[in-house]
Amino acid sequence: MSVQKKTDVKVITTHQLQNMKERGEKISMLTAYDFSMATILDAAGIDVILVGDSASNVMAGHETTLPITLDQMIYHAQSVIRGTKRAFVVVDMPFGSYQGNSSEALRSAIRIMKESGAHGVKLEGGAEIKESITRILSAGVPVMGHLGLTPQSIYKFGTYTVRAKAEAEAQKLIEDAQLLQELGCFAIVLEKIPSELAKRVAESLEIPIIGIGAGPHVDGQVLVVHDMLGINKEFKPRFLRRYADLHTIMTDAVQNYIKDVKDRDFPTEKEAY
Ligand code: KIV
Questions:
Q1: Active site annotation includes 182
Q2: Is the CB of 222 under 6 A from ligand 1?
Q3: CB 124 within 8 A of CB 146
Q4: Which residues of this UniProt protein bind 3-methyl-2-oxobutanoate (predicted)?
């Protein structure tokens, strides 16, 4: 039996994502943090919406993803869920909500699922968070892994440069990916690693591998929606393709509005009661 929402739209499930990998259909994934954006992405046909902890950067203006709280992630997730009919919605577990001990990890994951209505959670890391992942999975919560550049560990890495170029780190990433599959994760995000390494992981694992800065040979792609829409001007990594220049479009619109107000061109009689 497939899960159906009241609208009768056939929703995306982990099962369907697995089928997409098996038949070679690439998975599309973007971030969203609010109702309006989620409505647009969902109606456009996106497969997976990630309520990323990148909300800490693009919504709240923090330098890193570390400050965002569990309550704030739940608020964003609730808004996204209200705008979604079809997409599978995954929510990032924020820094500090799962690394400490597995009971706290389970409590955090259950809060996300219960209070937002999300369909799964994403955690950063491999062997070091094995107990937390196991505990969350045992409660029936789908878990997406995240390896490579893991922004919650930025102060350990010291930079946002490409990860796993050295053999030892590449080997650890391969072992971690294997472990996440064995534990029962339904998919893994690989961030900013060499294309050949991502290819190797995607080919050797059965579960879908979603890349961001991990090249074309993976099972799907994810981008931060503000980056791909060109709302952020400054962030220009090599892996980012901009599909619009909303920064310019929005700035022009706001400047035109200001001018019309100052010039007494807005509102006209037709725009008044
Ligand atoms: O928080 C986020 O937006 C992410 C993506 C970069 C994968 O984790």
A1: no
A2: yes
A3: yes
A4: 53-54, 92, 122
Assigned token pair, 67: 């400050």
Query: What whole-number distance in Å separates Cα of residue 149 and Cα of residue 192?
Result: 6
Mutate to test the pocket of ligand 1, among 46, 54, 73, 188 (most ligand atoms within 8 A of CB): 54
Tell whether ligand 1 has an atom less than 6 A from the beta carbon of residue 92.
Answer: yes
Ligand 1 atom closest to residue 124's alpha carbon, by position in its atom list: 8
Residue nearest to atom 1 of ligand 1 (CA): 52
User: Across the strands, what pairs with 189?
Assistant: 146, 210
Q: Is residue 53 marked as binding? A: yes
31 lines ligand 1 (CB under 6 A): yes
pTM: 0.96
The per-residue pLDDT for range 110-145, each reduced to its tens digit, is: 999 999 999 999 999 999 999 999 999 999 999 999
Q: How far is CA 151 from the centre of its chain?
A: 12
Say if CB 35 and CB 14 are below 8 A apart. Answer: no
